[in-house]
Amino acid sequence: MKLKSLCAAVLTLGALVTVPVATAQAATLPACQHFYTGTIPDRPVSGGHGPGSLVGAVNVSNRLPAPGGVTGRLGTDGKVTFTFSRVPGAKAYRAFRNGQALQWISDWGQPTLQVTDASPCQNANYQLYAMTAEDNSPGSLGQISTAYRVSASGALAPYALAKGTTLNYRVTAYNDVAQTALGYQAGPGFCAVDARNLPWGTRVSVPGYGHCYAADIGSWIKDDIVDVWLPGSQANDWGVQRLTLTVE
């Protein structure tokens, strides 16, 4: 995947779902850093135009449901540990932190499936999906779960941007024909985000583009940048646009 372009506190994200103030224990965690540590060039707004016809919403309803029953917390050992319920038909699961692979869990019929993050950071977004096979092929991957964050009590709690939240972002475009970082096949309606701020599975409407389903990341996708997928030269024609996005 080509190079694409700190934490949510530096962005004007609109009305976020309320997450309680962290405990002193959680507050000692380091800030979540962007995964790419190299130099990211400036992305000045240049203008551009959309594809003409608006892109429809990505449909993932035919995939395995996301794991539920998520429960866990930040322990006194400084690790975040959580368990989740098995998904009928699943052979394995993957866990992510801010869009980065955290753990692979094979389903051997064990009563409890567990994930441990030995290096947590503040307000990290933990997400999961189930798989019908252990080959990580795009068709085997289930629906991504909601994000979970460490709450004021130290326990994990669901987190999402509220519907109707508006985001003032720079919007770029890419045309890679490959799997997204989440694992789905890239195509119309998918977009790359800074998953520290927009958890995977977030849906937003993009003026001049249509619907965007967050399922990818990129080295240059940092802070207030979203990269929407367009075919061929349409990605170049899009340019860099400053737009107001709306969470759906």
TrEMBL record:
Residues 192-245 form the 3D domain. The keyword Lipid metabolism does not apply. Keywords: Signal. Residues 1-26 form the signal peptide. InterPro entries: 3D_dom (IPR010611), 3D_YorM (IPR059180). The keyword Signal applies. Coiled coil: none annotated. It comes from the Bacteria. This is 3D domain-containing protein.
